[in-house]
Amino acid sequence: MVLQLDGNQLTIQDIRHFLYNEDQVEISDEALQNVKQSRAIVERIINHKETVYGITTGFGLFSDVLIDQDQYNQLQVNLIRSHACGVGKPFSEEVALVMMILRLNTLLKGHSGATVELIDQLIYFINHRIIPVIPQQGSLGASGDLAPLAHLALALIGEGHVYYKGEEVDSRYVLKQLDREPLQLQAKEGLALINGTQAMTAQGVISYIEAEALGYQAEWIASLTHQALNGITDAYRDQVHRVRNFQEQIDVAARMRDWLADSQLTTRQGEVRVQDAYTLRCIPQIHGASFQVFNYVKEKLEFEMNAANDNPLIFDEGDETFVISGGNFHGQPVAFALDFLKLGVSELANVSERRLERLVNPQLNNGLPAFLSPEPGLQSGAMIMQYAAASLVSENKTLAHPASVDSIPSSANQEDHVSMGTIASRHGYQMVENARRVLAIECIIALQAVEYQDVDKLSPKTHEKYDEMRQIVSTIKEDRQFHKDIEAVSQYLRDQAYSDSAV
């Protein structure tokens, strides 16, 4: 399969499909023409010795320093080397791969002045899965993700490290093995590669894909819990949610009714109790609100995925061409969105932990054994799994602090307000991983709880899920190392986020 890029129409669904199917990329003819036109303007600037930021001048505070014409290309190489000062653990291979796709898509808009050779090198790296090793820390989120993208650029010129065929190796070594020349940066190209928000956006896209999947997965997991506690279905009736007006809430209620259809374990209002606790009764309201967050985040990420966000920007209006130093590299819109994503993810975990606590608490679990222990007292059962979930939820509350409210000036106060959006993206993904483990714990406990009720009375759809999950995690007959179960279910949930059945 092929993902065609043109700078304007890339979607998150495209990225999810690309990763799942291990697709290739190609570019449209129109996009290639846009690249050539913008490069012609850069060449004109060079030939006419015009004063243009980042092409014939230095960077940041050095923007008033003119560069000799025979040093324009060296200026770009120096930029990449000096800015490649990221630290910490590297981004995942998926994030780094998406980063290259997003950077390529931006260059194809024709406002960056890149050469065809740069475009070809990015396509080659993507399609051969030569993935730059990019440290996660060190970006302020304006002037874009300078440090992370500099590490991406280093790989293209044969000076960085890459992942290739499961190993971390020197980029120049891989290129030599493939008989491929390192990229020779031309005027403007170093800047075109590193001025942008692709690190925060790429990590944000991965976080969104997995967070949205968690939203859907939380519904069938909650449906198992609902049946284990003989929950009331009346609260999910369509009329209740339509008078609230929120479409996401209406949709969650509809899906919950579908998951629970024909169950013999659910109850009606007044049969066992008049109303359920909020963690069951308000699933459409709580989960629906998280989907509202996800929808907002998706829109902002897709805007940015198809944006020209470097500096300076080159414009060809037919009868007029011009170059403008602006600030589209500033990550504030993305930073806000990714901080918002953290709230939606956090609440999925919060309510999941409260549900699973009801399953193990003998005062709340409708007569099930304390902690679902096969031998209460001698065996602890699910007791400490609830501790682990509580710990993860608490950690998420700390990570949920918005990174975007902070700013520290840089470049001698030339860059005096920054977004910290990449911190938001990194913390957001940590929260996704934590939330996924909380839901994995609820799943394990709910599977056990429905066995005490009667698995054969489950709704047909949740019975299918029960059978599927029992292939991954076995019945708890005695205490064991539950961390292995948690990680196995968590990995299943992550893998499902990228499958064709994810949504």
From TrEMBL:
Pathway: Amino-acid degradation; L-histidine degradation into L-glutamate; N-formimidoyl-L-glutamate from L-histidine: step 1/3
Modification after translation (UniProt): Contains an active site 4-methylidene-imidazol-5-one (MIO), which is formed autocatalytically by cyclization and dehydration of residues Ala-Ser-Gly.
EC code(s) of this entry: 4.3.1.3
PANTHER family: HISTIDINE AMMONIA-LYASE
Similarity section: Belongs to the PAL/histidase family.
Record NCBIfam families: hutH (TIGR01225), PRK09367.1 (NF006871)
Protein name: Histidine ammonia-lyase
